[in-house]
UniProtKB/TrEMBL annotation:
Protein name per the record: FAD-dependent monooxygenase
Domain FAD-binding: start-end pairs: 3-312
The keyword Metal-binding belongs to this UniProt entry's keyword annotation: no
Species assigned in the record: Nonomuraea spiralis
Keywords: Monooxygenase, Oxidoreductase
Domain of life: Bacteria
GO MF annotations in UniProt: monooxygenase activity
Amino acid sequence: MKNVLISGASIAGTSLAYWLRRHGFTVTVVERAPAVREGGYKVDIRGAALDVIGRMGLTGAVTARATGMRVATHYDRKGRPLATMDADLFGGRTGDDVEIMRGDLNDLLYDLTRDDVEYLFGDSVTAIADDGLVTFEHAAPRRFDLVVGADGMRSNVRRIAFGEDAGFVRDLGYYISICTVPNTLGLDREEAVHASPGRTANVYSTGRDGDAKALFMWASQPLAYDHRDVGHQKDLLTEAMSGAEWEVPALLGAVRGADDFYFDSVSQVHMDQWSKGRVVLVGDAAYCASPASGQGTSLAIVGAYVLAGELARGGGAAGYEREMREFVRVNQELGPANVKGMVIGSRLALWIQMRMLKLLPYLPGKEKVVERVAGAIHRAAVAISLKNYME
């Protein structure tokens, strides 16, 4: 099993391509986009994922591209500051945890692999036969020993191999939208947040980006929409945030002109098995933990490392699942709990949260409060013992 096709030049896909090549596999990556995706939102690398990054020789490069975020400030509807907190505490980061823009991390991973991995951009898989013959939208059919779906929560490979209506995606009851907007607030490595019952708006600018990112999250019943109809998705966002004050109306106006608009449910992927025949899934395609978990990127990095190592060692998909199952379970548990702290359901709960954040610097035993915020994420991030597959 030496000839592998990876669908998706994602964090999981490019990480897996690197490790498979290290183990001597021939690797092809097919990606629907015309190039490795740039931009995106900021992501965290924690715990075991930091160890993997170190084994890839990327610690220095990742640290150099860290966002450099300093503070996060909550504002009321009239723009008055309510509470300011350290950016690492706001993001649940401790110790050596690193925050980086998703596009920057993907660039680093792509640079590691571009010379000895074949990339097919602007194409996608249309069928996978039992004998490994893969057909594409544009390229000629080719045969592979293994096909890996690293193509996200709405995985095309998963749909082909496991079925259209398998029900693996579980909605947590919220939606999220992110895009680039002008930095009209003049933010300098800052996050500005406004929360109202059932919805939150957050705009931030990093030390590496002249623009800003606007992030919206809100509670909602399932919405019906075409994932290709961006205009309708922007309408749904505008409707969801209608009546919100602070800078929200101006941000929604800027969203209309954004060309990197992202919109989806806050969901998780739960599967009884991550492989079927010649197909195996990694990252969000297999075990999306949701953006609320703060661990999606770390799961992708660790999952790619373990999958490649088990394939090389002879453990195969079964060994990969055995090593990853508990790690995935613990990290997925973060999502439903965290999202309730990101989108507050009532005015009273909001008032209590703002008071706590404002008083936090002066509270005795504040370390215990910080531990409650960051401790669960840290414990989940280190909940796996990584093998050294290169020995």
